[in-house]
Structure formats: structure tokens, C-alpha cells
Write a structure and sequence with these properties.
It is built from 13 helices and 9 strands. By secondary structure, it is α/β, with parallel strands linked by helices. Keywords: Methyltransferase, S-adenosyl-L-methionine, Transferase.
Length: 286
Amino acid sequence: MFLLLASHSVVKCTVVYDDNKGVKRLYGLTPLSRCFLPDEHGNSRAPPLAFLRHSAYIHTWKKLKDAVLEGGSPFERANNGLNLFEYGAEDPRFGMIFDEAMQSTSTNFMIEILQSYKGFENVKVLVVGGGFGATLDMIISKYPSIKGINFDVPHVLKSAPTRPGIEHVEGNMFEWVPKGDAMVIKRVLHDWSDEIATKILKNCFQALPDSGKVIVIEVIVPESPEGLSSLSRLALTHDMKIFSFTPNGKARTEKQFDDLAKSAGFAASKVACRTLEYCVLELYKT
């Protein structure tokens, strides 16, 4: 097996000859295989690949044509009528693979966002749907004087590690959210219809002080397909994945996010920064 991997530069191979003309092969890492080991942030490409190879993921694409022609969700068609999140709750192994994959991809672009966005200074941060707490941990690592709340459902938080400065709070964002000066909703709203996304934002609005803000981190799709950059085309690829894997979710344009914010009661929204294919939007009550 290792010889095959070496032939594709996944590992490197050094051949050593001994005095008896015997051959020994020594294998080592290459830049490619290092991607599957944790980096300085504890991140690797292994979890996303495990998700991409899971049968629930693969079978979803086989139902794409049926969903386009007849309606419904490709993921639900492929997985006994369960949506992505219900399936993760029913199958703990899949749930763990999915959560680890989301944490890995999230870490990659949060590194870039934290270099550009400065809106976390001197505030109490709440991350809504924060998974294992990696996003909040990265924020606190950059701003060690702050503390924060990582808010998610019980079956996710039971696997979340204890992290300095982070309080894990169990709950349901469709019913309520804890209080915080800056509420981060990262790659959550695209999973849901306008109606449900508005409900989530309304819960944030109710828990937010007048001087606070909601920080939405999402892929923004363009209004028109004409003259797009490679990052804009990547955003449209995200939109196809969202259609296939979420219950009535969708990627949105900047105007659609502004409309969502206003329907939830927010007075203003603005784009704070753009990093890679992601956009950081701030929503204000006044």
C-alpha cells in the first residue's frame, strides 16, 4: 500500500540497500500527507474527507435529479426522510464526522477573518450553533481578555472539550438564545428557510442589548452570473451543496440578508469585511 501511495506522492519513499544486497524501503511524509495531520491550530483535512466519503453524503448526490424534477430534499430522499441534523442526532458516528468536518473547514477561513475583522474587541461573545467551540476558542485566543458562551444543542456539546474562557450552554436557537454583546452566527442561516432564519434572528434580537450587534458570517451569492470572479463562482457551488444537504436552506445575496435582518426587527445591517468567499455582516438594533 505504501509503495502505491508513494507513486502518487502521498508519501515519500527512500530505498536503502544493506550489505547483503537486501532492500529496505523507508517512508516519510510529503506536503500532501502532512495535510492529514493536525497543524498548529489542531486542524487537518482528514475530517472533511471522511464526511465526503460517508455513504449518507454519497447517496445524496444520487437523489439530486429526483429532487429537481419532483421536489424535496436530496439528503432526505437518500436518508429515510431525515434531514441532515436529524440524521446526525440519530447516528452519533455520522454526527461526529459532520461536526468535525465543519470545525475543520471553519478553522481555515476563521484564521483569515480574524486577520481582517476587528469587531470582537472588549465584548462578551456568544456563538450561536458553535459546535465544539473552535470558533469561539480562536476568537478568545486573539482577544484573551474577553470571555464567551458557546451555544448549541446537547448532543453536540456532550463531545465539546473544556476550553479556557468558554462556557458551553445547551439550548435550542429556535426557541431562545443567551444574552451577549456580540452574537456570532457563522454558516447557520444558510441551512434554513427565510421563515426559520428570521425566527433565529428574532431570538437573537430579543436577547441582544441595544448597543449590541449580531455578526453573521456567510457566503454571499452574486445577483447576476455575469463576469464573476473565481470566489463568486465558488459561492454558487456552495449554494448547490446547501440545496442538496439542508432542509429548505439557501445561500443568499447581500440584499436578501438585509431583508432577513429587517424582518427580524433590526434597524440596520452592513458588510464589515469580505474574506475569501465569505462575508462578515453586522446587524444593529438601532
